[in-house]
Amino acid sequence: MTGIRTAAGQRGIALITAVLITALISIIAVAMISEQQLDIRRTGNILDRAQAWQFALGMETIALLALRKDVENNQTDHRMEDWSKPVQFPAPDGAEGDMISGQIEDLQGRFNLNNLVDGNGTIDAEHLEQFKRLLTQLELPPGLAARVADWIDLDSTPQGMDGAEDDEYTRLDPSYRTGNTLLVSPSELLLVMSAEEYQKLEKYVAALPGQEQTKININTAPREVLASLKYVTPADIDELLAQREQLEKQSSRGFAKIEDVLDLPGFKTLRRKHGKFDKYLKDSSDVVSNFFLASAFAQFDKGEVALRSVIRRTVSKQNKTPKVYTVLRIQGDY
Question: Is the pLDDT of residue 332 over 90?
C-alpha cells in the first residue's frame, strides 16, 4: 500500500509540475507577444514620426524656394506677398486628417534682442532705450531691458539698478550663470524673466544671428514694435499704419522705400522738429528683410512634428545672386 501511495504521490507531483511549467510557459509567451506588439507599435511610431519629419523638412524647402523667388522678383518685403500666406494640404499617403501646414514670418518685423549689444559685446544705449519703450508698450516693467542686456553683454557689471549678473543667478536653486553671448532663441529669456512676462513679449522679439545690427521692417512690424522707435508719437504710428493698410488694400503692396514714410505729413513734422530724425529712421528701419521664421507642422498617422526654421537671405553685391539658407532649426517653439 505504501508503494502505491508513493507512486500516486509522485504522479500528482509530476502533474502539478507539468501544470506549473505549462502556466509559466504561457505567461512567458504572453509577455513575449505583448513585448513584441509594443516593439511593433514603437517602431511604427518612430517610422511615422520620421515620415512627418521629412514632410516638415519639405515645407522648409518650400519656404526657401519661396523666399528666393521673392527676392528675384521684387526689392521690398511686405505682408501681401505670397511668402507670407499660410499653406495647408493633406499628407501624401497619410490617414484621413493627416495634414502638413506651414507659414513664414518676417523676423525683422520684431525687435532684435541681439541689437542690445554692439560688435564688441558692449551694451548699445540707443537700442536699450528702444527695448524699454517696447516693454512699456506691452505693459511690462522697463527694468527688464537692463536684465536682458546684462545677460548678453560680455562684462560682469550690472546695468544700473535693474541689471543682473552672475551674483544674482548663482544664488538661485538650481543656480546658473549669465550667457555673456548673443541669444540663439528668444526662449532663453525664460532664464531672465517670468513665464507670464515672456508670454507677453515673445511675439514681438527675435534673436537674430551675427554681430551686425538689424533694422526693423516698416512694412511688417506691428504697432507695438513701431511705437518703440525714437521720436514718434501714437498719432504718427496711426498715420503710418493707415497709409500701410491703404497700400495693402489698393495695390497689394507696402511702402516702396523709407522716403515714402518720411513724406507722410506727420513724419515731415518730425523731420522739422528733430534734425536727426531723418537719419535715425533710415538707420533703424527698412522695407527689406533678411531674416525669416518658417514654421512647419506635419502629422502622419501617429507621428507629429513642429519645426521652426530661422532662414537668412542675402544678395551678392557683385553679381546680385540671391542666397537663401537655414541658419537654425528648432523642434517646438522659437
Answer: no
